């Protein structure tokens, strides 16, 4: 169902803005009033990369009055495959500078506030203060958690998207939604400590066109929330399989159960052994998450995500010697430590899947 609009409309649009946004004003139910609400709105965009780039373009074109763009990175040549707000001439320059230029080229009346800072738990609320709505286009889960914490403190909606490989997710989190609407937070989907170490885009790649699609969806959610039209994705998550051209939807709600978290690691009694190859007769246990293992695993490996293994490492007692693997080794060391504490013979594959994949390619 629709939610009340986030902002009151400005009294009037300029003549130039009325002409530029004419196709919006003829949309029902957006219309003239909805366009004036967009003009009054202030949206903060976390990240000017693969997701933030199309968001900046779409919201500037839509006539949003103020965009605060937060990113501390400079443009690199590898960004241009997906970060469409930047140009070849921008390489080496701040990403926020590209955002300012591109928005001005589309909508001279949109004010872009560039913030060249890294958003942290300490400065998040201050950087986002004053925004009616926040869009998360960041690429590390730590920053996502920091942004979520800040929006929960401020009580503003968080439009959230994630892209990796050919897969994506889009939803809306809001800790203080209008009366009669259930709150949903990032921690309801990803409890603290449950995510672990995620691979970067550099590790597994990302489809550039999918970033544009997801950025457009994030912008649409922002427009709906600002103007009070349509059905926002609050309480629903859109899941996109870009490789198969499929979209599905799952319901999300506030968690009432104790979240499954990864307990603190005990101090190891002895160094955890590492191996450079899988010994004969050993069992490989892959502790990555399901979305990672779909990209490939070591043949015959048992797939047990880290949080699940840590719930009962003793369940593997009596098995042959175990070699634990993750993407690069951090989670594998944690798992091997817990297994050895439970009396299970365990070691870690040096370099994880990254090293194993490189070795496979070199011997193919």
TrEMBL record:
GO cellular component, one term: cytosol
Domain Rhodanese span(s) in chain numbering: 278-361
Keyword terms: Nucleotidyltransferase, Transferase
CDD domains, A to Z: RHOD, ThiF_MoeB_HesA_family
GO MF annotation list: nucleotidyltransferase activity; sulfotransferase activity; thiosulfate-cyanide sulfurtransferase activity; ubiquitin-like modifier activating enzyme activity
Listed name of the protein: Adenylyltransferase/sulfurtransferase
Lineage start: Bacteria, Bacillati, Actinomycetota, Actinomycetes, Micrococcales
């Amino acid at each position: 169902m629709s939610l009340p609009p986030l902002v009151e409309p400005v009294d009037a649009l300029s003549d130039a803005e009325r002409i530029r946004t004419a196709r919006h004003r003829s949309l029902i139910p957006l219309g003239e009033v909805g366009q004036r609400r967009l003009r009054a709105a202030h949206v903060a965009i976390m990240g000017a990369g693969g997701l933030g780039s199309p968001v900046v373009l779409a919201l500037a074109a839509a006539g949003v009055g103020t965009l605060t763009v937060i990113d501390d990175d400079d443009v690199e040549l590898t960004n241009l495959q997906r970060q469409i707000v930047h140009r070849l001439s921008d390489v080496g320059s701040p990403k926020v500078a590209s955002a300012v230029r591109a928005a001005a080229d589309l909508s001279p009346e949109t004010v872009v506030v560039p913030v060249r800072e890294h958003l942290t738990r300490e400065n998040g609320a201050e950087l986002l203060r004053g925004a009616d709505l926040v869009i998360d286009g960041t690429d590390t889960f730590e920053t996502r958690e920091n942004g979520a914490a800040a929006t929960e403190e401020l009580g503003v909606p968080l439009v959230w998207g994630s892209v990796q490989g050919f897969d994506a997710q889009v939803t809306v989190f809001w800790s203080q939604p209008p009366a009669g609407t259930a709150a949903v937070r990032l921690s309801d989907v990803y409890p603290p400590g449950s995510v672990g170490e995620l691979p970067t885009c550099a590790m597994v790649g990302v489809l550039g066109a999918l970033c544009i699609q997801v950025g457009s969806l994030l912008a649409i959610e922002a427009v709906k929330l600002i103007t009070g039209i349509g059905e926002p994705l609050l309480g629903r998550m859109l899941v996109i399989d870009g490789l198969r051209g499929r979209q599905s939807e799952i319901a999300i709600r506030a968690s009432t159960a104790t979240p499954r978290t990864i307990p603190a690691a005990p101090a190891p009694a002895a160094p955890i052994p590492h191996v450079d190859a899988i010994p004969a007769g050993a069992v490989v246990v892959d502790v990555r998450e399901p979305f990672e293992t779909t990209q490939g695993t070591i043949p015959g490996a048992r797939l047990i995500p880290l949080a699940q293994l840590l719930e009962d490492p003793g369940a593997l007692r009596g098995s042959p010697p175990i070699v634990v693997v993750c993407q690069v080794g951090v989670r594998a060391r944690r798992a091997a430590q817990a297994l050895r504490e439970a009396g299970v013979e365990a070691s870690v594959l040096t370099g994880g899947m990254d090293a194993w994949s490189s070795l496979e390619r070199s011997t193919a």
